[in-house]
């Protein structure tokens, strides 16, 4: 069987499932066990942890998948609001550093802990349920607007040397990539995505009908552009 771009999402599902089961059978602690080792990989390659490993990210993805299967309506926050709203998780992160806690909103922690230890308070359960219900209609609501951990990883990733690259000469501007990006990033208007919210899920790579989105070295993208201009 030939490995196609769509199979990247099958592979991602399997990796997410392994880590979800890891949490369930407790070989993976409910706090992020890789935290201290992620600094360099994120600086170089971006936030694969969020797109491929984090169980709460996976739960939101799978809930959205089920909603798409049942053809529930999907909503994307309009650009005029998104450009401000996407800053919210960084605001929560900054306030957290200043000692203002939003632990009550931490659905990721509640989910991981409940799967790991079987313990869930009523308040944490309600918060968790709210985000699961929201995921039926919008992609990754917690990751997009609330996750302080995701915000800290995102800030680290802005200078990464590998990223999502779009070949404008092949693009037909259908905007399917924008529509399907779970983090609401405008890919169609960028040639190299270094957005701090990118989680390297590769959804844009999988859905592009012209196969003109790739994950590559920034310098390689520049070289390709120069050679296509010379043609
Ligand atoms: S943003 Fe937070 S909840 Fe979402 S995948 Fe990353 S660490 Fe997990
Ligand atoms: S999905 Fe592909 S062809 Fe469509 S706008 Fe995005 S990059 Fe261009
Ligand atoms: S830009 Fe692509 S890889 Fe990054 S979050 Fe959006 S769909 Fe995923």
Describe the structure.
The chain is mostly helical and 231 residues long. It has one domain (1-231). 54% of the residues lie in helices and 5% in strands. The protein has helices at residues 7-24, 39-45, 48-53, 55-69, 79-85, 88-97, 107-117, 122-135, 141-145, 148-156, 176-180, 203-207, 218-230, and strands at 162-166, 192-193, 213-217. It has a 3-stranded antiparallel sheet. α6 (88-97) packs across α10 (148-156) and α7 packs across α8. The two termini are 35 Å apart. The structure holds iron/sulfur cluster (3 copies). The site of one iron/sulfur cluster (SF4) has 15 residues, from α11.
Strand-helix topology:
Blueprint (H helix, E strand, L loop, with lengths): L6 H18 L14 H7 L2 H6 L1 H15 L9 H7 L2 H10 L9 H11 L4 H14 L5 H5 L2 H9 L5 E5 L9 H5 L11 E2 L9 H5 L5 E5 H13 L1
Antiparallel strand pairs: 1-2, 1-3
Helix pairs in contact: 4-8, 6-10, 7-8
Describe the structure concisely.
With 231 residues, the protein is mainly alpha-helical. The chain has helices spanning 7-24, 39-45, 48-53, 55-69, 79-85, 88-97, 107-117, 122-135, 141-145, 148-156, 176-180, 203-207, 218-230, and strands at 162-166, 192-193, 213-217.
């Amino acid at each position: 069987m030939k490995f196609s771009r769509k199979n990247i999402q099958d592979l991602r599902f399997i990796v997410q499932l392994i880590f979800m089961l890891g949490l369930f059978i407790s070989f993976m602690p409910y706090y992020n066990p890789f935290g201290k080792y992620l600094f360099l990989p994120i600086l170089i390659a971006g936030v694969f942890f969020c797109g491929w490993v984090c169980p709460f990210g996976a739960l939101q993805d799978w809930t959205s998948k089920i909603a798409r299967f049942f053809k529930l309506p999907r909503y994307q926050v309009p650009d005029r609001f998104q450009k401000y709203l996407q800053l919210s998780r960084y605001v929560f992160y900054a306030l957290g550093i200043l000692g203002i806690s939003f632990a009550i909103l931490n659905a990721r922690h509640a989910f991981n802990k409940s799967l790991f230890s079987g313990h869930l308070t009523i308040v944490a359960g309600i918060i968790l349920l709210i985000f699961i219900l929201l995921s039926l209609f919008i992609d990754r609501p917690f990751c997009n607007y609330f996750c302080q951990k995701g915000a800290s990883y995102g800030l680290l990733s802005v200078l990464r040397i590998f990223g999502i690259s779009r070949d404008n000469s092949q693009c037909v501007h259908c905007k399917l990539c924008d529509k399907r990006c779970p983090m609401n990033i405008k890919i169609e208007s960028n040639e190299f995505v270094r957005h701090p919210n990118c989680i390297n899920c590769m959804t844009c790579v999988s859905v592009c009908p012209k196969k003109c989105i790739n994950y590559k070295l920034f310098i390689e993208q520049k070289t390709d552009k120069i050679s296509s201009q010379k043609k």
